[in-house]
């Protein structure tokens, strides 16, 4: 079974693809995909964590303001969790739509977490691509996730079951 993903990025970038469904739990869809089309690998704290060819198991939480990607290298080694801060996650049948709010969090297997792309969010505000409410909302979601991580309440349990 496939799920159609529509991943929107302000102001007008849209990524669409069909991914293999691993599990459809209704309010959580788990799908498998591959990183492709990256111009450069992603490094966090000096460590390469994502590059083309790596695989992801992603968890789309319907109605939530985040998704979670479990990242694996070509050898199947777990590299960490990548969390997108989202305005929304909606589902209609076999289509999931998300709107990205720039901020991301990477969590290493040892639990160290890093907030990413603050510069992109700041630029979006400065250039009028987003308003102050959207800016503040993105930070509030990111702060909540980071706090939940510290308390051991994030990610949701389902992430460790797959």
From TrEMBL:
N-terminal signal peptide: none
Parts of the chain that traverse the membrane: none
Annotated DUF402 domain residues: 10-154
InterPro entries assigned to the protein according to its UniProt record, in alphabetical order: DUF402 (IPR007295), FomD-like_sf (IPR035930)
Pfam families: DUF402
PANTHER family per UniProt: DUF402 DOMAIN-CONTAINING PROTEIN
Protein name in the entry: DUF402 domain-containing protein
Species this protein is from: Thermococcus cleftensis (strain DSM 27260 / KACC 17922 / CL1)
Lineage of source species: Archaea, Methanobacteriati, Methanobacteriota, Thermococci, Thermococcales
